[in-house]
Amino acid sequence: MKTLTNTSVPNHKVTIVDVANEAGVSFATVSRVLNNSAHVKPETRARVLSAMERLGFVANRQARSLAGGKTNCIGLLVPDLGTGYIGEIIRGIDAELTLRGIDLILYTTHRTASKEANYVANLATGMVDGLLLVLPRNPTDYIGTLTRRNFPFVLIDHQGTGQDCPAVGATNWQGAYEATEYLIKLGHRRIGFITGSMDLGCAQDRLAGYRAALRTYHIPEDPNLVYEGTFFQPDGYAGASAFLDLPDPPTAIFASNDVMAMGAMDAIRNRGLRIPDDISVLGFDDIPQASLIRPALTTVQQPLEKMGRLAAQMLLDLLENPAQKVERIELPTKLIIRESCQPPRQAD
């Protein structure tokens, strides 16, 4: 059999037919290798992959999808790449997909609802086999369309738009309740709370958990002690500054995520105050930086990497069996006590 190479056929775009001829297998066998089918002998798969490498073959994912095959690629939409929170989730997703030999296409939406909807529409036209969406801004804009098309997707850290929406999250309400309860048991009665973006279910649940703990211990809620943020570090700084400007400032600040807690810590230090001697600070997420700053941050741990892994597994299961029952998984949170909280100072 004549061997085809890039040099022997100038300007020739290598196709799977060329790969089949080079490897001495059928067109269908090459297609099965491209789609990662289990019904290919290991030695045959190795021969096909070797032929692809020799020929410089690059698969056209969209063409394969239109032909009824799979792209072996998953789309991932994240709001940004600036926090350890996102990084840990991506690490779990990537680890799981790598085990299955599946590629990842990553898009950042910069928390813009229109951009998010456009990315989803483009990816769902055949660029990828399924979608993972982390903290989607406004999934109601497109989830109905994805569902009608039977296009597989899983939401991460979002409740979705009903019980038929596959999602992986954490016990945000319980985590916030236990964190607030911890501060109360230390003796704090004035606890400032900096919310996340209130259009997100996780932010709503954390605020609700904080309020529930205050009610349980019969502590009146002061509206001046709730500052609406957006999960970004500057909001932590601004929220803490607003609290410290009050005639009767809080003795503890609970931020809805770690990066806002770090912003709050900067504001406190800039006022010449000490943490936790003058004011306690508590966060949420337990990103890697939380244990590295000084004082080390007391926070609510979300199993972020595990959330990514489970979401990837759930999506791959939906791809293999689209008719299976939709799952909504809530992983437990855990209070991690470090150095940034202590009982409030007694008035002189």
Automatic annotation (TrEMBL):
It comes from the Bacteria. The keyword DNA-binding applies. Pfam families: LacI (PF00356), Peripla_BP_3 (PF13377). Keywords: DNA-binding, Transcription, Transcription regulation. InterPro entries: HTH_LacI, LacI/GalR-like_sensor, Lambda_DNA-bd_dom_sf, Peripla_BP_I. The keyword Transcription applies. Residues 14-68 form the HTH lacI-type domain. GO terms for molecular function: DNA binding. SMART domains: HTH_LACI. PANTHER family: HTH-TYPE TRANSCRIPTIONAL REGULATOR GALS (PTHR30146:SF109), LACI-RELATED TRANSCRIPTIONAL REPRESSOR (PTHR30146). This is LacI family DNA-binding transcriptional regulator.
